[in-house]
Amino acid sequence: MTEYTSDSKRFCSVFKSSKKREMYLYVDRKDGVEKLPEALKGIFGEPTHVLDMILTPEKKLARVDAKKVLAEIAQNGFFLQMPPGKDEEKIGDYQVQQDSLNG
To answer: CATH code for 10-96?
Structure first.
C-alpha cells in the first residue's frame, strides 16, 4: 500500500464547524478528530466531515497556503482555518493569527 503521509504530502480530512460559519479544521486522516484538545473541541463544536484529500505543498487552497497547513498539522496535529474578519483568537494554548491567506 502506498504511504500518503510524508514530509511533502499528507492524507488530510477537512471538517467544518457546527458553531462558527467558515471555520474549518484540517487533520491527518488517520488521526481524525479524536485527539484534538478539549478547548478546541468546545469552540469548534460538532465537526462535520467535508472532504478527504492528499495535500501537497503545491496544492491550491481557497484561503490558506498548503505549506502552512502541512506545517501546522505536523507540529500541532491539526490546522484551524478561522472565518474571515477576526484579528486573532486563542483556543487553549493554540494562538490562531489571521493573515492575508487565512482570513
So the answer is: 3.10.510.20
